[in-house]
UniProtKB/TrEMBL annotation:
Pfam families: Metallophos. Hydrolyzes the pyrophosphate bond of UDP-2,3-diacylglucosamine to yield 2,3-diacylglucosamine 1-phosphate (lipid X) and UMP by catalyzing the attack of water at the alpha-P atom. Involved in the biosynthesis of lipid A, a phosphorylated glycolipid that anchors the lipopolysaccharide to the outer membrane of the cell. It comes from the Bacteria. It catalyses: UDP-2-N,3-O-bis[(3R)-3-hydroxytetradecanoyl]-alpha-D-glucosamine + H2O = 2-N,3-O-bis[(3R)-3-hydroxytetradecanoyl]-alpha-D-glucosaminyl 1-phosphate + UMP + 2 H(+). The lineage of its organism: Bacteria, Pseudomonadati, Pseudomonadota, Betaproteobacteria, Burkholderiales. It is a peripheral membrane protein. One of its GO terms (biological process) is lipid A biosynthetic process. One of its GO terms (molecular function) is manganese ion binding. It is found in: Cell inner membrane. Substrate binds at N85, R86, D128, S166, H208. Belongs to the LpxH family. Its cofactor is Mn(2+). This is UDP-2,3-diacylglucosamine hydrolase. The gene is lpxH.
Length: 262
């Protein structure tokens, strides 16, 4: 378990990209305004829409701007990062440049006197067997080493192809509108129960599914609480409601804090 904190903010699934400038600007504002007011910030995966290697950031003005914002934030408050399914290739160079501390997935933390298990959430979606096979392969060190040895333009092409492959992409609209797809790409109670038993606690926080809510769960006499983090999207009002929020934990309890400007 990492150090204990009296207060924290947790965010996930911002999917930052130059094509979503309003969402990006709200993240920059978050780093300057809300984040420094707590003892720790946890960024729980998919900060970026995709990540093809730390070297790629050196060729992207946008990613360099995000890097600078994180580097400034980490001088003010302890900032942690968990890999997501879009940016699991974030490596030591980026962490060094930003001052972020990488957490394993899952990780157990103590905030405001309570233990929580934190994870991105994709590993809990065990009903999607095809994705879990894909996830296992791309997390192998030798596969990542081979991919990162490719020319940058090759890596970007592969990433774009994978993003367009509905078999491994979690869509924000059409795919999530299907009840079957929601069941397939949502977490399973069995997976949640297993990770909580392993970590010996009864509070779970994750992102990934883009279905923010607080759940009281039970399975085979095991009970627990589960909080799901929201994704962020302030750039597509024509197709979805603007959304951006953080989960705040302190002595007053847990609450979702809206970051959508009125």
């Amino acid at each position: 378990m990492i150090a204990q904190y009296a207060s924290a903010l947790l965010i996930s699934d911002l999917h930052l990209t130059p094509s979503m400038p309003l969402t990006a600007q709200r993240f920059f504002d978050f780093c300057e305004k809300e984040a420094p007011k707590v003892e720790a910030v946890f960024i729980m995966g998919d900060l970026f829409e995709y990540w093809v290697g730390d070297d790629a950031a050196l060729h992207s003005p946008f990613q360099l701007e995000v890097q600078r914002a994180l580097a400034t934030l980490s001088t003010k408050v302890k900032t942690y990062y968990l890999h997501g399914n879009r940016d699991f290739l974030i490596g030591k160079q980026f962490l060094s440049r930003t001052g972020l501390t990488l957490l394993s997935d899952p990780s157990k933390v103590k905030i405001a006197g309570h233990d929580y298990v934190l994870c991105h959430g994709d590993s809990l979606c065990t009903a999607d067997v095809g994705y879990q096979v894909f996830r296992t392969w791309v997390r192998k060190p030798w596969v990542q080493k081979l991919f990162l040895a490719m020319p940058l333009n090759w890596r970007r092409s592969i990433a774009n192809h994978l993003r367009s492959n509905s078999g491994i992409q979690y869509q924000r609209s059409a795919q999530q509108s299907s009840e079957f797809a929601r069941m397939k790409t949502n977490v399973t109670l069995a997976a949640c129960a297993a990770v909580l038993r392993d970590q010996n606690t009864d509070r779970l926080i994750h992102g990934h599914t883009h279905l923010p809510a607080h759940h009281q769960e039970n399975l085979d006499a095991q009970t627990w609480q589960r909080w799901v983090l929201s994704d962020w999207d302030l750039d597509h009002p024509e197709s979805t409601l603007p959304r951006a929020s953080a989960l705040q934990i302190d002595k007053a309890g847990l609450r979702y804090v809206s970051l959508v400007k009125a």
